[in-house]
Amino acid sequence: MSRIAFLECAVCGNRVSAEEPQTVCPVDAGSLMVRYDLEALKQTAKRENVAALGATPGRSVGMWRYADVMPDVDPVTLGEGFTPMLQSQRYDGLVVKEEAANPTGTFKARGMAAAVSMAKHYGLKHLAAPSAGNAAGALAAYAAAAGITAHIFMPKDVPFANILEAKAYGADLTLVDGLISDCGRMVAERIAEQKKLAAAGEMPANEVWFEVSTMKEPFRVEGKKTMGYELVEQLGWKYPDAVMYPTGGGVGLIGMWKAFEEMEALGWVSGKRPKMYSLQAAGCAPLAKAFGEGKTRSEFFAGAETMASGLRVPKPYADWMVLEIVRESGGEVIAVDDKAIFDSVGDWGRNEGLLLCPEGAAATASYDKLLAEGKLTASDRVVLFNTGAGLKYVDTIAEAWGIRREVVLPKALPVGGIITPV
Amino acid sequence: MSRIAFLECAVCGNRVSAEEPQTVCPVDAGSLMVRYDLEALKQTAKRENVAALGATPGRSVGMWRYADVMPDVDPVTLGEGFTPMLQSQRYDGLVVKEEAANPTGTFKARGMAAAVSMAKHYGLKHLAAPSAGNAAGALAAYAAAAGITAHIFMPKDVPFANILEAKAYGADLTLVDGLISDCGRMVAERIAEQKKLAAAGEMPANEVWFEVSTMKEPFRVEGKKTMGYELVEQLGWKYPDAVMYPTGGGVGLIGMWKAFEEMEALGWVSGKRPKMYSLQAAGCAPLAKAFGEGKTRSEFFAGAETMASGLRVPKPYADWMVLEIVRESGGEVIAVDDKAIFDSVGDWGRNEGLLLCPEGAAATASYDKLLAEGKLTASDRVVLFNTGAGLKYVDTIAEAWGIRREVVLPKALPVGGIITPV
């Protein structure tokens, strides 16, 4: 891991070593960011090599093509990253980063691939995290590949696909009658209990769970930041005018901004950074509320309710970082309601051939809103993230559209066979 | 399309032009194969350029990196192909081609991307196909992207994900109380009727459906063949010892063999071709039966029943081609039962971090069988295809494993929150 200089607290700047597992800053519990010696790296890390690395026969093309700015450990990989950038059929300037192409069908694979690779490097045996659904599937998959036990807490009303995949990957799964915030509290309580037991010699220290919650360990950001490297590389090492990103915990947005800083320091890109648009669901919009009120932190969003389960995060741990980045970039935090979200899922299915996840559709619905308000034009270069596969939300989408699962009884038709029009 | 020399009937060798839409051979209804002037191409088409093309900034990496040996039309693309090749965690020689990374979550995207790109080039407005499920989703998605109407017939008991995606992409969907063979017959009957009406001037000719059924139009094979190009490129332009391929209609296996022929003619690869293992479900194993009986054609498999819906093809149209290739390669056609299939889904989830589709698990279960019989060793270089995302089979897998969808009633626990152990 020679490449990593130190871990730095995003709040107080305190520095800690990456030679051993770290969660948050020991001083003020701020999120720890991975810092490299970019001045030294600038001499050796060339963007030309990235494409060459990605094209090396025998490798799968993926996020590890950016190895120069990642921890140098053996990656636990399932083929994550370097997802397609798709040209919209209708809007000249709009391209979609199709994160459904990732393992477990969502962008969560990037962060968990990095976090689990580090956990394996550190020799950790038990990883724990709360999840709104998709992080659970990703953690469970990479933990299975690494021979590590995943302990997962998620709301019991997540899409069934999230429950089945966690089970399929052999995770220790707990369904919670509450929100991800309740899950997070319970993970923290479990670990606090275990640490007491371990301190009292009543439990082996290496059986204490290690928490990989959003922004509470340094490496999920390192995985997610590759979205920023990719979008710049796929645009020919140029910045777009805007990035539209569905925001639950905000790790991806924080990671992309970090990627832009690093790429500028390395001389890989220059010019004006994109406006960062953070998209939420009206039923759970703590960041949109704080942004509108000009606040630097969000408040717990009471009564959070949206069918876009990935956006059901009532109090993001690093809310202040997201708000700061959005404001610095000249972007906005926008909230759209579930009707607009599921209408947009249908619109993009019929007209673009993409089955978006509800979170991705929060971005497309917001894009429509910004076009209507004249804040964006169809020719502006916009990178919009579809953060996951609509296929993980089959029941949710069917429910939102009022599609009955029962097949209508067959009736005879003039031309052979018994058929059922739908 | 200057690159294409002609279309050749796989049965009688009859040649027809690719300048206009073609289905099957006008002489004997044999499948038409796309032939290029490989001698001429050999001078210009270099394998080195392939990687360079794939690595070009601004392009998504995908199957169109093999443009030199594809029709030169504007592709209708959703980011299909160049899927990850994953090293097994347990078997040194085994790598998995993870086709779940494709648009619509399965390998069907490759064939439909090529077929729909050609349909758009020809100016066709209506495409029709029977489907065991996943071809329908792929056809519907690419048709939506191309502004073409897709008319789809599939068994009413396909996974719900297949029904929802077809609807989401705006397809004209008909659910049939029967098998894909019934669906195929109905598509043929519809089109025959339409042609009569068109001939009688009672229907506009351009509203007659064009059939893109398996092996009944030339370009789905061209899309699927890229799996053969990719596996050779990803192994450093070398052949593996064996390829394991779940077989419904067999287009991919036929396509890969075609790719090997083309690559040898172009000087891109040489040496002994891999043994081709064709994998089926015991509940619908027409090819395994014919192979075992030393026959050159299969018989309609009566009472076909398996939860691996993609393998529910009782009489593949090009059965003789699959059998010929498997025999020529020194491979086998193997059938495994549904219990072995869903046990293997669990095994690969827990131990490899991959949620296989049932069809892919027919391949992994067969791999175990060949290891046990000593016909393969763990160090043999084997490329195994997971043809799609297990996420498209959530209900099927849950049913096979006896997982109840209802969440168990919450009970209080000592440490905060109401939780539900699963």
The total count of strands of chain A amounts to: 15
Major β-sheet profile of chain A: 6 strands, mixed
Oligomeric composition of the shown chains: homodimer
Helix share, percent of chain A = 25-40%
CATH topology of the domain at 85-105 and 220-400 in chain A: Rossmann fold
Span between termini of chain A = 56 Å
Mean pLDDT of chain A: 92
Feature tags:
homodimer, 422 residues, alpha/beta, Rossmann fold, six-stranded mixed β-sheet, four-stranded parallel β-sheet, 14 helices, 38% helix, globular, disordered C terminus
Summarize the structure.
The structure is a homodimer of 422-residue chains. The first copy, chain A, is an alpha/beta fold and 422 residues long.
Description of the molecule:
The structure is a homodimer of 422-residue chains. In chain A, a hairpin with a 6-residue loop joins strand 4 (85-87) and strand 5 (94-98). The first copy, chain A, has 422 residues and is an alpha/beta fold. Chain A has a domain at 85-105 and 220-400: Rossmann fold (3-Layer(aba) Sandwich), CATH 3.40.50.1100. Chain A is 38% helix and 16% strand. In chain A, the strands form four sheets. Chain A has a six-stranded mixed sheet, with helices on both faces. Chains A and B meet through helix 2, helix 4, helix 5, strand 8 and helix 6 of A and helix 2, helix 4, helix 5, strand 8 and helix 6 of B.
